[in-house]
């Protein structure tokens, strides 16, 4: 049975890359019965009717899958944030980091538009960059999206499935256009009234770039923790995981528990207080979430 990878899903068709050929496939009715939807990124078995068309018969077990964007088997996420226009937001960045950490996806933080910063803003950003690097995150810095950005990012793409996500209007499509000019992906100017870009990407597609696959995904301005439980949240903050072995209680949520090593680390300045504040805010949001039935 031939095997391949779904690189695009559109209007009920799945485009399966097998070797150098792309076969346009439909899904078998068995997926509907099992309430399973094949996703871009899925490794599949398929049956070819001819050299252009066929049917997806089965899905291999997934490493992970995301709901927004709908994609499976992601290795890493390049989180594109701008230093200004729109303003750099650690709260939004931490939301993205929690989301990708909860799916065992390796995050790479890419901050653009450094050339637009005033001196005072640059000093403030330097502190954040230092904090995130100290936690262990890869942080890449770039001014304009040019050839230098390409050279910086290409080595990270090889043999990986990469999602490009982040603030709306930071230039994700522009970034992909720089990586592969033949794409000519549609980009819109920043909507000044909203302070964020308009959504310009309509579907998920895996693009072959730099010896790997890159997904161009719709930018989103809000992220909800619909699938994350309160007990899982501490594991999405690597700096908390590092010190939590020193907590008195197993399963410590680092809020009101006595002898909590995480709270001590925050007080000592080992863990940035804004990260801990975001953690408490996210935890409260998860606890307040209405139950799903």
What's the SSE blueprint?
Layout (H helix, E strand, L loop, with lengths): L2 E8 L2 E6 L2 E7 L1 H5 L9 E6 L4 E7 L5 E2 L4 E2 L3 E7 L7 H13 L3 E7 L6 H17 L2 E4 L5 H11 L3 E6 L5 H8 L10 E2 L4 E2 L7 E5 L2 E5 L21 H6 L17 H7 L5 H16 L5
Parallel strand pairs: 3-5, 8-9, 8-11, 9-10, 11-15
Antiparallel strand pairs: 1-2, 1-4, 2-3, 4-5, 6-7, 12-13, 14-15
Helix pairs in contact: 2-8
Can you tag this structure with a few keywords?
Rossmann fold; GTP-binding; Ribonucleotide Reductase Protein R1, domain 1; alpha/beta; 3 domains; 293 residues
What is the fold named in CATH at topology level of the largest domain?
A: Rossmann fold
State which percent range the strand residues make up.
25-35%
Q: CATH superfamily of the largest domain, please?
A: P-loop containing nucleotide triphosphate hydrolases
Helix coverage percent:
25-40%
The class by helix and strand makeup works out as: alpha/beta
Task: Work out the count of structural domains.
Answer: 3
Listing every helix as H and every strand as E from the N terminus to the C terminus, the arrangement reads: EEEHEEEEEHEHEHEHEEEEHHH
The neighbouring-strand order within the major sheet is 10-9-8-11-15-14
Tally the beta strands: 15
What gap, in angstroms, lies between the N and C termini?
38 Å
Number of helices: 8
């Amino acid at each position: 049975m031939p095997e391949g990878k779904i690189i695009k899903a559109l209007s009920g068709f799945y485009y399966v890359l097998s070797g150098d050929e792309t076969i346009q496939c439909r899904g078998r009715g068995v997926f509907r019965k099992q309430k399973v939807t094949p996703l871009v990124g899925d490794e599949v078995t398929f049956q070819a009717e001819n050299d252009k068309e066929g049917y997806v018969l089965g899905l291999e077990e997934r490493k992970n899958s995301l709901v927004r964007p709908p994609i499976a088997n992601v290795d890493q996420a390049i989180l594109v944030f701008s230093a200004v226009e729109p303003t750099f937001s650690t709260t939004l960045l931490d939301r993205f980091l929690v989301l990708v950490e909860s799916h065992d996806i390796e995050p790479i933080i890419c901050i653009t538009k450094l050339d637009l910063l005033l001196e005072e803003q640059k000093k403030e950003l330097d502190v954040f960059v230092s904090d995130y690097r100290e936690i262990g995150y890869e942080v890449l810095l770039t001014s304009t999206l040019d050839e230098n950005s390409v050279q910086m990012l290409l080595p990270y793409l090889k043999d990986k499935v990469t999602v490009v996500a982040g603030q709306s209007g930071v230039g994700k499509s522009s970034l992909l256009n720089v990586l592969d000019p033949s794409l000519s992906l549609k980009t819109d100017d920043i909507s000044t009234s909203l302070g964020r870009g308009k959504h310009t990407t309509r579907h998920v597609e895996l693009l072959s770039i730099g010896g790997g696959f890159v997904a161009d995904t719709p930018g989103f301005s809000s992220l909800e923790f619909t699938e994350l439980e309160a007990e899982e949240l501490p594991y999405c903050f690597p700096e908390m995981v590092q010190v939590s072995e020193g907590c008195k209680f197993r399963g410590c949520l680092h809020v009101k528990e006595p002898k909590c090593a995480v709270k001590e680390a925050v007080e000592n300045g080992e863990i940035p207080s804004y990260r801990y504040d975001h953690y408490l805010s996210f935890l409260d949001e998860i606890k307040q979430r209405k139950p799903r039935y």
